[in-house]
UniProtKB/TrEMBL annotation:
GO molecular function per UniProt: ATP binding; glutamine synthetase activity
Domain (GS catalytic): residue spans on this chain: 90-347
UniProt KW keywords: ATP-binding, Cytoplasm, Ligase, Nucleotide-binding
Catalytic activity field: L-glutamate + NH4(+) + ATP = L-glutamine + ADP + phosphate + H(+)
Primary localization class, coarse: cytoplasm
Assigned EC number: 6.3.1.2
UniProt name for this protein: Glutamine synthetase
Gene3D superfamilies assigned to the protein according to its UniProt record, in alphabetical order: Glutamine synthetase, N-terminal domain (3.10.20.70), Glutamine synthetase/guanido kinase, catalytic domain (3.30.590.10)
InterPro entries: Gln_synt_N, Gln_synt_N_sf, Gln_synth/guanido_kin_cat_dom, Gln_synth_cat_dom, Gln_synth_gly_rich_site, Gln_synth_N_conserv_site, Glutamine_Synthetase
BP-aspect Gene Ontology terms: glutamine biosynthetic process
Any GO CC annotation of this UniProt entry: cytoplasm
């Protein structure tokens, strides 16, 4: 049979490791693939090897939920999956299933920071084998061999994402040596999470070719003056996009204040190392909001104000290793407690 009638489907899912889940994937070769999500069959995997099932009853199910062309392989697609238990219900590790946004009223833009990491030295790309490079300051949005490290990986990743149909809206070198960022936006919380995870997968696989790892930890350089990594969550819904009122925005922000613990629980492990009140963060045990304030828990963008208080908010607390599904689910749950939300959405 001709290889042209065969298609590679890369099934991607999240494992059960704690406190931070990892990406897993495996390839299914199918014949005469139709090219749609509906043509992707349910599959299974050994959950006892991913901390998701005991050895005596190890099967977990993979439910395809999003499909992207795989630009790095011939006749191939990337299949993002939810993990289900054998009875077809969402597995306890399935954060996507907790999102209450069936009408896609919530829009999310995630700013994903990360470090390119050298396994041999256990340091960021661009760090000398001994000691440190010049202090941060020259690396942010930089150019040149003394300032920007790993651009070939970052550019290749961007091209792959765009070819796959992932809505990456930008990239930039970040504050620390070897630190970069990409931004993903989608109308619909589940779709936004799908795209972040597939973009992360493509980044891991791209860097793998160059024997470079991706360090998602929020403070990989420990208690130093080097910046940590975040995944700022920009979000809006009908209420925020049409409010036209400073009071509505303040009411929404204030709804987050008594729920600091609940949000921090899903905003990524070790966030206390990053949310110190320094390096453009608020302290982990405090809550604040303000216009154009990057030291606040939630920033009200100046563009929102200039647009007559119609726009979005930015929660700056989620860290680089957080699960965008769980972050979105928690934000949506909080916003839905605001009385004005029910009025705008007819509930």
């Amino acid at each position: 049979m001709s290889t042209k009638s065969k298609t590679k489907l890369e099934y991607i899912w999240l494992d059960g490791y704690k406190p931070t889940q990892s990406l897993r994937s495996k390839t299914k070769v199918v014949r005469d693939f139709g090219g749609s999500l509906e043509d992707c069959p349910m599959w299974s995997f050994d959950g006892s090897s991913t901390e998701q099932a005991p050895g005596g009853s190890s099967d977990c199910l993979l439910q395809p939920v999003a499909l992207f062309p795989d630009p790095a392989r011939t006749n191939a697609y990337l299949v993002m999956c939810e993990v289900l238990s054998p009875d077809g219900t969402p597995h306890p590790t399935n954060g996507r299933a907790t999102i209450d946004d069936d009408d896609n009223d919530f829009w999310f833009g995630f700013e994903q920071e990360y470090f390119l990491w050298v396994p041999e030295t256990n340091k960021p790309l661009g760090f000398p084998a001994q000691g440190y490079p010049a202090p941060q300051g020259q690396y942010y949005c930089s150019v040149g061999a003394k300032n920007a490290f790993g651009r070939h990986i970052v550019e290749e990743h961007l091209d792959y994402c765009l070819a796959a149909g992932i809505n990456v809206e930008g990239i930039n070198a970040e504050v620390a040596t070897g630190q970069w960022e990409f931004q993903v936006f989608s109308k619909g919380a589940k779709a936004a999470g799908d795209q972040v995870w597939v973009a992360r997968y493509l980044l891991e696989r791209t860097a793998e070719k160059y024997n470079v790892a991706i360090n998602w930890h929020c403070k990989p350089l420990g208690a130093t003056d080097w910046n940590g990594s975040g995944m700022h969550a920009n979000f809006s819904n009908s209420l925020l996009r049409t409010a036209g009122s400073k009071e509505v925005y303040e009411t929404v922000c204030k709804a987050f204040s008594p729920l600091v613990k609940e949000h921090i629980e899903v905003y990524g492990a070790d966030n206390h190392l990053r949310l110190t009140g320094k390096h453009e963060t608020q302290s982990i045990d405090k809550f604040s909001f303000g216009v154009s304030d990057r030291g606040a828990s939630i920033r009200i963008p100046i563009a929102t104000v200039e647009n007559g208080w119609k726009g979005w908010l930015e929660d700056r607390r989620p860290n680089s290793a957080a699960d965008p599904y769980k972050v979105a689910a928690r934000i949506i749950k909080t916003v839905k407690t605001v009385p004005a939300y029910a009025t705008v959405n007819g509930r």
